[in-house]
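Chapter review: from sequence to fold.
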Amino acid sequence: MGKRRDDWVDVFQAVGEAVFAVLRAEWEVLRQQWLQRSLRRAATAAALFFAAACFFLALVALMVAAAVQLVEHFTELAPWQATLAVAAAVLAVILALASVAYFGFLRRFENPAVLARTRLDDHLAWWRERLVRDDAALPEGDHDGEP
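The token string follows.
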């Protein structure tokens, strides 16, 4: 009878190991497919971003070249003078946009160190208040260190 039970135990162990092996293999296939699909999507997104960035830079270069031609034509400046004038104007626009972004958008964010300190102070104050309240709720003589 002991031999027969050992056979059944071996059969159940073999079936369990086989089920886990199948599940592990299925998991690996699913993970690999998901990884390939994710990498394909990430590569597509990166390629589209790169194409958009190239298009944007080409458009800006074209606009700057047109601006240089217009300044050169209407002001009768030398080509290098017109180029410097347009470069100064582009720099002024970039600085203006950066300052608007800084003062309008980025100032809304708190300094992480100040935020962490404020939260720590609030947390410590809450614990002090709770300990004082719990200490006051204890009957006389139940405090630590008192007889």
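Two observations follow directly from the output. Residues 2-108 form one domain. Helices lie at 2-75, 79-104, 112-137.
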